[in-house]
Amino acid sequence: MDDHTRLLCEEAHRIFSIKSTEEISNYVDSDDFQYFWLHADEFIQSSRSHIHFGHYKAIAHDRYLSALEASKLSLAATTGIPMERWGSALTVLL
Questions:
Q1: What is the 3-state secondary structure (H, E, C) of 16-69?
Q2: Structure confidence at residue 65 (pLDDT)
Q3: Model confidence over 37-88: pLDDT tens digits?
Q4: 3-state class of 88 per DSSP?
Q5: What is the signed CA dihedral for 22, 24, 41, 38, rounded to 10 degrees?
Q6: What is the pLDDT of residue 66?
Q7: Fewer beta carbons under 10 A from the terminal one: N or C of the chain?
Q8: What is the rounded CA–CA span in Å between residue 53 and residue 8?
Q9: What are phi and psi of 21, to 5 degrees?
Q10: Given its phi and psi angles, is residue 58 left (phi above 0), alpha (psi -120 to 50 degrees) or beta?
C-alpha cells in the first residue's frame, strides 16, 4: 500500500472512530456475501484482475461457493492480512 492510500485509510479510521457509535463486524457470512452479490450491477468489471461481477453473482447462487468466498473475506478481515491481489487497488465496501 502506498503512503497516500495508507494515510487515507488511517484518516477514515480516525474519523469513523470519533463519529460513529456503530460497531462493524469483521466477519462475513454466506448470507452477507449472497445478498451483496445478488444485488450488484453485473455490468461492472470488479478489479484489475478482470474478474467480472458476473463471476461473483454466479458464485452467490451456490451456498458452498458463497461460504468459501465469505470465509476468505473473513479470514483477511480478522487476521489483518489482505489478499495479495488487493494490493493493487483500494476496495471500499459500504
A1: HHHHCCCCCCCCCCHHHHHHHHHCCCCCCECCCCCCEHHHHHHHCCCHHHHHHH
A2: 94
A3: 888 776 766 666 667 778 888 999 999 999 999 998 888 888 888 877 777 7
A4: helix
A5: -110
A6: 93
A7: C
A8: 26
A9: -100, -5
A10: alpha
pLDDT score recorded for residue 47 = 63
Q: Is the pTM of this model over 0.90?
A: no
Cell matching residue 72: 476468505
Residue 15's pLDDT is 83
Sign of the C-alpha dihedral computed for residues 67, 68, 70 and 74 taken in this order: positive
Residue 62 CA to residue 46 CA, distance in Å, equals: 20
50: left (phi over 0), alpha (psi -120 to 50) or beta: left
Ramachandran assignment for 89, one of left (phi > 0), alpha (psi -120 to 50 degrees), beta (any other): beta
- Could you give the CA distance from residue 82 to residue 37 in angstroms, rounded to a whole number? 20
